Amino acid sequence: MQIREASLEDIKDIKTLYWELDSDSILYQPSLFTRTERPEDFLTDIIKNNNADIIVIEVDGIIVGFSLVEEKETPKISCLKEKKYVYVLDFVVTKTYRNNGFGTLLLEASKDWGKKRGLDFLRLSVFEDNLKGQDFYKKNGLIGTMKTMECEL
Fold it and tell me: Residues near 104 by Cβ (< 8 Å), separated by ≥ 6?
């Protein structure tokens, strides 16, 4: 087992995992998500970006999960404390490897990525109906701090 930053050679495997992640997105919010393949240039830009990375977990030469992490800052609003943080934009472990500790290792690697950069905290979003995902994140030390709400117009 190896955890590392993705390289351009990993794009095909990452795209396959995105297909699985996007299937979950469609399941949880079909009115907002549609089936599409992630463009290669999007992944290339992330891999080459100094403020973002795709952290992969590889088992026996197979990439079984990834965490897309970005360095962000709180908005410059007078009432907000200025903080820098890791935002996990996308996080997935393929279904056949879930519940074996790989997600926890990948999340810890995401936290470590932020610690090495001197960031203050880690933030992510999870679908309201994704109770297994919420339980996983809670078991790994994340807490709810704000709830996003929306409605159709």
Answer: 139, 140
